[in-house]
Amino acid sequence: MAPKILTTLFKRKRKENDPYFRPKCGSPNAIGISDSTCEVNGDPFNGWKLPIPPPEQRALKLGARQCNRQQASRFFQLPIEVRTLIYIELMGNRSVHIEHAWMLPSPFRPKPKREGERWDWWHGVCQRSGRFVDDRCWDRRDERYANRFEGLKSAPAGTKLGGVEWLRCCQIGYEEALTVLYGTNVFVLRIGLDTPFIMSRLLSPACSALITSMDISFDFWYKLDQRPEAAAWATVYPALFDLFEHYFCNVHSLRLTMHMPAWEKVGGTINDGKIDEILAPLERLAQSRNWTRLKLCVPIDWLPCLTGRAKKQNRWELAMTEWYEHKTFVD
Hints:
Blueprint: H1 2-17, E1 38-40, E2 50-52, H2 55-58, H3 80-91, E3 95-103, E4 118-125, H4 140-149, H5 164-167, H6 171-183, E5 186-189, H7 194-202, H8 205-208, E6 213-219, H9 229-246, E7 253-259, H10 272-287, E8 293-298, H11 303-313, E9 317-322, E10 328-329
Parallel strand pairs: 1-2, 3-5, 5-6, 6-7, 7-8, 8-9
Antiparallel strand pairs: 3-4, 9-10
């Protein structure tokens, strides 16, 4: 009996200390979804806790801080309409892959004092606009490969937004450019249901409320009727749609790409109750505001059972995504 208990304890300890182990993203225990996986002003080198800003920092409103009005600056002597056009040229009207994840540091920054993975931001301007939502053309692993084997010293032209570093040192420019940065770009969130939750915990409500367009991709990583995974999904999945009521409240263009297993037919028929359960949060979201675009992308074997529902409600569009092998998106 004793050896079995000791073995269990040691296995648990190694698992919790393993920086490469992560709970599956559909679980309420996934990093960033549950309160227990977040820590205010936490350690950026603790992969089991997402460091989040304190409530008072998230509650700060634009214009609340004192700032230099930049009256001697030639740039700020330009009309606001001209400055806005410059902001758009620098950082607007693009599709931007974005994530805050546990990863190795960028090779294009000064060498960090501490090696290893940490919580870090990454973004990349999409070079394949309109294709499959997860078809990223540049990411942190590509940065490291290009730096190590190709001698690249900075990200390729066009893969990063311009002016972001400047905004960190200019409060008035930061406040002016926020509407362009958040309001004109399409934010593409990587596969993983935890990603939208992480974004909602890190962005202040003042910023998240400015976002108008998003592409979100996530996956069912178990069969729909499995337990206990199905119970976890029943908790997390509706909460994803609740984010659009409380945080992403001004998003009016949304594409959801859902990676799903094939329907399991019972007695030759598909479980209509399960379909209705999955579509219910989407239907509520569709009725919550006036959408310029609300598209649901699913694997081809889901199309027959969803086409009739999409036509009947006439609020959200239906499209196919083929993700099994080549990940090509049909739009």
